[in-house]
Structure formats: C-alpha cells, structure tokens
Amino acid sequence: MLTLDAIEMREIRLPLKQPFRTASGVQDSRRILLLEITARTGETAWSECVAQETPRYSPETIDTAWFAIREWFVPALRGCALAAPSDVLARLAVFRGHRMAKAALEMACWNLAAQQAGVSLAALLGGVRRRVPVGIAIGVQPEERLLVERVRERLAQGYRNVKIKIGPTADARFVEAVRAAFGPDIPLSVDANASYTLADIELLRALDGYGLTMIEQPLAHDDLVRHADLQEQLATPICLDESITGPDRAEDMVRLRSGRIVNVKPGRVGGLSAALSIHALCQKHGLDAWVGGMLETGIGRAYNAALASLPGFTLPGDLAPGSRYWAQDIVRPAWTMSPDGFVEPPFEQPGLGVEADRDRIARLTHRSERLAL
C-alpha cells in the first residue's frame, strides 16, 4: 500500500536555447509546474505537469493545473491508501478533464511504487528495451534554406527520425526542399498541429509524394471523423496526437480508421496507466506508436524514456537530450544520446533513475506551495 504524506508544488521558469515555433505559436521560455511528492514511508518522487502557459495545445494551463491539484485533487487523495498507482485516477474520476494535472500526480505515484519495490520505473512498467531510438522535432523555420540547415545539423547528431513542423505558411515546398537536399532515404515526417481542414485536401495529397513516415495531426485537435475521411484518401499514415486524450479516444480511432499511428504523450492522456492501455491497444491492432514530448525538463523526459522502453513503441520517440532545448537542465545525471541516436532508459536504479538538482530548482522557483496529505 502507498500512502502519501505531502505534495510540494513549484513553478519554475526555464528559458529555451532558441525559440520553438509551431503552427499554434512560439515558445522562447517555459513556465513549468513540478511536483515533489513524499510517501509516509519516506520515499520522495518528482514529477512534471506538461500543461503550458496558455491553452493553445490543450484547454489546460499551468495555472488551471495548480488550482485543480490544490483545491480538488489533494483533498480527494488525503488519507487514502493506494494499492496501485492507477488508484490515483480512480479516486479522481469524479472530476472531469484536467488530465495533465492528474497525470502529474499519478506518474509520481508510479515512481514511488517503483522505489518501494526496489526496481526501476522502466521495469515496473514492463519495459524491455535497453536502448531506445530518438527522433527530433524541428520548429517552423522562416525560409527553406534555414530548415535545410537545421535538418543537416540534426542528422549529423545522429537522430533516427526528423520531424518538421508545418503550417499554412510552411508546407509542401519546405518538405520538397528537405527531400531535394537529403534524398528519399532519410526518415522524415511532418507535424501540422491541427492547422489544416479538409478544404486543404489537395495540399495534403501533395505530401503523399515525399515518402513521409507520417503526417501528424493535420486536422482539428478534437476530430476523429474527418481524419478518417482524410486517411482514406492518403497513402501516408496519419498520426494522431491532440485527438488522443485517453484510451477511449484511441479505441474510437481504431474503429473509425482515423489514422495508423499514435503519438502517446503520458501527460496528455492522463498518466502512465492510460499510456499503457493505449500501448496494449496499438499492439493488439498492429498500429505503430511512439512516445511524444512536450518540451519537458529532464524529469518529464525520464518518465517518457521509461515508457518508451516498452516493446510496442515501434518508432523513434521525442526523447532528445535536455541540452537540445535548455542551456542547463534540472536533473543529474544529464540526459545524453549516443552518436547513433539512442538513449538508455535507467534500469539499474530503483525509481526514475535521475536525481532532481534541488539547488538549481530552488534558484528557478517563482512560487511554491506545500500541501499536507
């Protein structure tokens, strides 16, 4: 049984090395909500809420997550003995939505459970792969020449897949520039972040000619029906991201044939228990899947790497080292990637396998609040 003792919430602010542009906006820094959860037996686990500052990617924000955890979720968990990490979500099921806030709590409980069992989080989740391939996302660039330069840099660093962000101002001609520069053999995909409609069908059909691994989330964030219409007209697999907010939506995707690939972000789908259910669904139906990222720090990245060690994640994950995004991360040891583009999820140490840099986190903290359980 796992009984929680206290939760400390911290908001840190971490500048990005360079702005990251997608079809939904530009980020040059991140406000990040971290949780430090202590069990009655003394173990401590850090986790990260992936909600952003504004509701551009999802309705949740760092501020709604902070409020929901303090006002609703902590009172609901107070005094509870949890038989399994998934019990967190059962306790919070009465509250609709707020999946990212719930995930931050549930994922920390997986970490605590792994520590109590004396095993790594990767092993507790059922992970088997000691080396996980890494892909990289490149934000929208102002011109084709700069995009080609960024792709060249990432390929030289060993990344196993390159995903370029596209949108109405940067679409087929940018893909054409990359293919012209590097040929047909490099693994290449695009991510539209829900920036098109079926009125853009001719443009989307044009992407079929470039041998892409996938077209990620071309249509609206909450749409499955029109994605099914689009997938029927495309040879390139559609990958769904924002549309998959839980196992039920993944089941609907399968039934409707809305796509052939799933981007599994544990924070987006409500936690690791939900991510495991989606992983099993993809295996059952022969769908490709991969672990996506949300510009996490090394804390969130460690959870993603543990999840990505499961056998059903068939495509390179969004697991780039923190040094790709941050001048200095907040964990020790820092995440690194091998020259041939792999990360190694920690299997030897109990729990998450990385240690939070408390001094750096303290310097970056803009607000904190401790809540007794």
Task: Map the helices and strands.
Layout: E1 2-22, E2 25-39, E3 44-49, H1 62-77, E4 81-82, H2 87-91, H3 99-117, H4 121-125, E5 132-133, E6 135-138, H5 144-156, E7 161-165, H6 172-182, E8 188-191, H7 201-206, E9 215-216, H8 225-233, E10 238-240, H9 247-256, E11 261-264, H10 266-269, H11 272-285, E12 288-291, H12 298-308, E13 331-332, E14 342-343, E15 355-356, H13 358-364, E16 365-372
Parallel strand pairs: 6-7, 7-8, 8-9, 9-10, 10-11, 11-12
Antiparallel strand pairs: 1-2, 1-4, 1-16, 2-3, 5-14, 13-15
Radius of gyration: 20 Å
Please tell me the overall pLDDT.
95
Q: Estimate nothing, just give the exact number of structural domains.
A: 2
Spatial strand order of the main sheet: 6-7-8-9-10-11-12
Rough shape? globular
What share of the residues does DSSP label as strand, in percent?
Answer: 15-25%
Task: Provide the CATH top-level class of the largest domain.
Answer: Alpha Beta
Gross CATH architecture of the largest domain: Alpha-Beta Barrel
Oligomer state equals single chain
The CATH homologous superfamily of the largest domain is named Enolase-like C-terminal domain
Total number of helical segments? 13
Low-confidence stretches: none
> What is the distance, rounded to the nearest whole angstrom, between the alpha carbons of the first and last residues?
15 Å
CATH fold name of the largest domain, please? TIM Barrel
Tags for this entry?
seven-stranded parallel sheet; 35% helix; 373 residues; TIM Barrel; 16 strands
Task: Report a brief summary of the structure.
By secondary structure, the chain is of the alpha/beta class.
